[in-house]
Amino acid sequence: MLKINDLRVEYEKGVPTLDHYDLTVNEGELVSLLGPSGCGKTTTLRAVAGFVDTAGGQITISGRDVTKIPPNKRDIGLVFQSYALFPHLTVNQNVAFGLRMRRVTKKDQSKRVDEALRLVDLEGLGERRPAQLSGGQQQRVALARAVVIEPQLLLLDEPLSNLDAKLRVNMRTEIRRLQQRLSVTTLYVTHDQIEALAISDRVVVMNHGRIEQSGTPEEIYKQPQTPFVADFMGFENHFAGTVSAVDTDALTVQAADTTFQASQASGDLRAGDEVWVYFRSESAQLAADAVPNSVPVNVLLRTFQGNAIEYVIQSDLGEFKVRLPEDQVRFDAGPAYLSLNPDSLIVMPK
Amino acid sequence: MKISRWYTLSLGIVYFFLLGPFLIIFAASFGAESTLSFPPRGFSLDWFANVFANEQFIRSFWTSLQLGLIATILSLIFGVPVAYALTHFDFPGAGFVETLFSLPILVPGLVIGLSMLNFFVLFGKFDVLTGLMIGHTAILFPYSVRVVSVALRNLDPAVEEAAVNLGANRLRTFLLIVLPNIRAGIAAAFILGFITSFNNVPVSVFLSGPGVNTLPIAMLSYMEYYFDPTIAALSTILIIFSIVLVQAAERLLGLSQFV
User: What is the pTM of this model?
Assistant: First the structure.
């Protein structure tokens, strides 16, 4: 289990990159840190690995306080974005390096190296050098090298970003399978939301050194709690409104001249609160006539996108994008109605 | 078309003035006459025999060889840690330190030689050979630092972190991971340093003394008294020696990526 308490990291004195940062990764759980570059996710990982000095707080791994322990004594497996294989050593020697540092006997070393290579499907490539391997194979060596030491914690720093799209999807599945098989506690850093959603038990969205939201992939995808998370998770449309009524499991929002129902528990929202209403371009509908929960719009542009048709529409609430399945009735430029399902609206305080 | 003609012409001019003198020396070293002349008349290998018969040349050659090897090794022993520090730590004044180390490259060799002579006279009672060694180590040091720095910068910092993460301390990381990956750079620094020391005149001329000469100094003094093709023959030998050394290094290590 990894526990980060009130962590503070400063690259420049007095200017914290991370401050009052708390994070827990439970035993055997895979948690990904998701966010744009500069959000502090890599800093967090490097602080846990011991490559970044902490200015305050505490990092505990399996009950052991490692805050002041040097990086070579933390017993953490780490997979780098660039793989960072030792270019002058063979695959076997690369994987054995951690065992060699732990003074494991030669016999046990070769047994465990073989096992680790089998785990990542690289049997028989042990005598090759990193330069003789493909990107995907190098990635597997890096994985084998990190897990062969049976670490208390596995850290992965954007491990797939140097691979091409197809390989990335395959490796993602394999990393997840390996992680579950070894049930190793894992912290995974990525800027790719699809990757994070696919691989994680829990996703932690970060921005400007703070945690915006933490939850299961489904919660993050379906119920973003801040504008940042909504944007990052692909909610392309939003408009401003005011809460006019609060029910146990529904909200009424007034925006321009229109009243919208949103089937969402109010949370901390009260009548009169200024709010943002978010919705995905796929979850909206266009209609020829006014229906409940709809607003008159003007269709500006229609573009064909293969399996979908995308419309750009203008309304009193702003400009929106709507994506409809390709086989639905098409709308020409001109007046129409944007109809929003109460289930698809996410309301959050402004 | 115009550009490519200019290109050819410029290249021709450069080659003419760069290689022309070498070719003249090369041809003259086989001449049969007792004065250095071009074009050479006759053919003779006597001047090559003369080189090996000259005790001054042989003795100074060994001095230069010894000096070159020791000074280069010393410059690396001091230079590698400095290069490591410059590339790994962001300390105040790092830029200043780097400039300081390029000083011997920027300051004319004669000025360095003269200053060192004064310095040694003031502060040290070194014998001639020790003085030469200190002097040469000092002029080679910046080369070592630079070339090794380039090699270190080419090594992905994550590779070192990976070693540390897997349990290696700083020293083991350096010996097991960093050093094997910069050996081509160190070899390049070694060859560059050795050739620089071997060819050096301005510093050696001030620091050499009675009985101890480097080869270039011995050649200079020989030329003050004689003007026969012996010196051309010796030059030919040295040119071939340098070419072989550099070519071998280029083939084996890809020297040019560091310099």
Answer: 0.83
